[in-house]
Amino acid sequence: MVLMSLAVIDGLLFSGRQNRRTRPVWLMDLHRGLGGYALAFTGLHLVSAYSAGLGYSIVAVVVPGVAKESTIPLAFGIIAFYIMSISVFTSWPKRLLPRKFWHFLHVLSIPALILVGLHGWQMGSDSRIGWYIAVTLVLTAITVYPFALRLTAAWQKRVEKVAVRS
Amino acid sequence: MNSPQLPQPGKRRHAAKGSRRIALGLSVVSTVGLAGWMYSAAGGGSTESASPTSVQDSISIPSTSTTLAPTTSNRNNSTTSTTVVPATGSLRDGTYTGTSSSTRWGPVQVKITVEGGKITDVQAIQYPANDNRSLQISRSSIPRLVQSTLTAQSASVSSVSGATYTSASYKKSLQSAIDQSRAKAS
Known about the structure:
The complex is a heterodimer of chains A (166) and B (186).
Chain A: H1 2-14, H2 25-51, H3 58-62, H4 71-89, H5 99-107, H6 109-123, H7 130-165
Chain B: H1 17-41, H2 52-58, E1 67-68, E2 94-97, E3 101-103, E4 106-115, E5 118-126, H3 132-152, H4 164-185
Parallel strand pairs in B: 1-5
Antiparallel strand pairs in B: 2-4, 3-4, 4-5
């Protein structure tokens, strides 16, 4: 969740059109690295959930809604994993895809992050411990800020366009 | 590198200032909202929202041969062997109470009944139930652990996801009870 949040924050802060020319190259590398590591560790998490003897079959950890216990929180996690995979793997053939379509797929990582948070909160044995709550709140604060910044910037731009037209 | 754009006379100097304020406000509101939601979801900070009596009344167990008794923190960890019948397996018949194993959410203690050398009944006489979340986890996990124990006839049962601490303490207490039964048999 931490890696994914940092990847999303990096992406939100530095991928804006106004930042495209001035941003350091390493920030994009960091964004890709964080996203890749987040996906890799989530894959490891799925493998360990299956092999740790928690009573989940291989089908239950890859198909949402199949698990008999904790069906909905587990489905959140599985769906988030697939969205993350789409977001990461479509970044490689980015130029082959229409820009708007790729962007739509890529920003799906934001709802995926919310699903990851819900999955962790509902299923995590440590989710009521102080440090977990503190980390979740800090991540929420620092993720919502750039997200809201991008939304308000887009909204202002739209308002300005309407003003120019009229 | 682009040269920084200088503000033009008559124009707003910090066009993004408003956006930053709105973003900061949304960030604070969402974080405080989430903190409030987490607080209420975790039981509203109440440490005694579920009394032991209500625990006993509300928990239902799928198997008819298993029971889940309420938390009683003043129970001792002594072994009580009530019935002694010659055992056919490696376990001695009787009732055995495992040691109380503590978790950060409360202690877990189980009592097993052995009949004919087999574990026929498992009771969780202590389990975390001090807040709504603990109660919810205990309600869902302990019956599964008990069912797994009756099937496996040992403490080698799968942990329940989301109840890692409860599962570990349950297995520890169960192993202790089984060890007592084995010790009597030998």
